[in-house]
Every structure is written in structure tokens, then in C-alpha cells.
Amino acid sequence: MELLFLDESGRIDQGGLFALGGIAVRDTDWPELKELWQSTLNGASWPLDKEIKWHGIRTGEVPPPLADTVFAMLAVAPFTAYVALLDLELGPELEPVFFRTPEDVYATGLMFLAERFHHLLDAENDLGLIVVDSRFREDDQRLRRFFADLTKDGTPYMQLPRIVEGLFLGPSHYSIGLQCADLIVAMTANAERGPGQGRGYLKKVLPRFAVHPATGELDGVGLKRFPEAVPRPREHHRLF
User: Fold this and answer.
1) How far apart are CA 226 and CA 77, in angstroms?
2) Dmax over Cα atoms in the chain, in whole Å?
3) Which among 163, 216, 154, 225 is positioned nearest to 188, based on CA atoms?
């Protein structure tokens, strides 16, 4: 069994860039990830029940030495990372059907990630669950309805039979997986927005991102930008 933990970065209603992404962890690798996370925090005398968030790293609430150590740990941790970067300025102009409402934007990011996760499950001949950071009760209900349709009908491009039906939602401060997802997606979004703290961390963690199994290409697989200002040839658009 594989678990895909997802979180988001950015505000859909404020324009700019919205990112959705996180980490896929095999069930048998979970004990190693948990041990790495807890030993890293224990080594810095950081309480295990105190959340590590990108916002805390940016504001200095998380001491810089601990932030560096956490990302060094993530760079060797047993997971596969995925991030979808949605351009809220170009999107309504170039791909309006995917950007009509905030719900459509979130659903578009979730669709891209579900497709990529399913390719991983195919390669591993396994099943998977998706866990998302809980937002608000009404938003969570909309997400569950959308995901139920997604697992029943598939995406416009593929069916998703290996993803177990139902979306699992929970508060991130109780979840190591969701805290890792927050760090991965927010770091990547920060790096994409311009020079900043995220770029240095992203260089370290890039080996954890999914790549095309035949070409080793990162773009379009572990990192999905949508829409692209300069579209790539069709053969580069296809996943596998």
C-alpha cells in the first residue's frame, strides 16, 4: 500500500501561483520515515507534538539550524515527491475550463497528482490512499464529492482503479506525513516564485521527486506546471 500525503501553498482567491503537492510513502517505509522525523526533532530538543510548518521556517519560529537539518533529512527520506504548480494568471486565459472557480483550480491540481500517483501504483503493482490536510467542513465535503467522482469516472485522460475510493482528511499537526507534505509543497512554491529560501532547499530535495522512468525527466512528472507559457511538443506532454 502507498499513501500520498497532500498539502497546498498559496491562496486561490489572490492570484499568482497556487501549488498542491506532497509525498508518496510505501507502507513498509513508514517506520523509517517516522524514525527519521522523530530523531531529527529529538536531536534539536523540538517537541514531537509541536508542528513544523514552512511558515514557521520563514518567520524564524523554527530555528534555522533545525530547518536545515529537517530538509537534510527530507533529502534522504524514503518517499517520492510530487508538486503541481498552477498559474492563476495564465490559467484563465489559456485553459479557462480548469480555472473557472476556486474549486475547479483545486480539483485540477488534485487530478494531476492523482494521475501521477496512479502511475507510481502501476509501476509498483500496488494500491494507494490519498490523505489531505483538512481545510474547512464545507470545503472538505466538496473535496470528498469531487474525489468520489474522480475515482468512479477517472480523469479525462485515464482511469484510476488502483486508488482506494474515498479521500482521507485530517489535521496536519497530528500527521508526520502531512507536515512533510507542507514542507515539500511550500518550499517548491517559494522556489518557483523567485529567489528565496526555498531554492536552496529544493536543490537538496530534488532527488526525492518523481521522474519519468524512461527519460529521467522531472518536468511534467514530479513537477507539473500548468498551464505552460510555451507549450512543449505533444510527446513531452505525455506522462508515460
Assistant:
1) 27
2) 51
3) 225
CA angle, residues 186, 211, 195, in degrees to nearest 5: 35
Q: Could you give the CA distance from residue 71 to residue 202 in angstroms, rounded to a whole number?
A: 9
What percent of the chain is modeled with pLDDT above 90? 69
CB atoms inside a 10 Å sphere around CB 239:
15
Residues 83, 224: contact at Cβ < 8 Å? yes
Predicted model pTM: 0.92
Whole-number Å distance between alpha carbons of 121 and 191:
28
Q: Please report the pLDDT score of residue 232 as a whole number.
A: 65
Asked if residue 121 lies in contact with residue 2, where contact means CB atoms within 8 angstroms, the answer is yes
The amino acid sitting at 206 is L
Note the helical H segments in 158-208: 176-193, 197-205
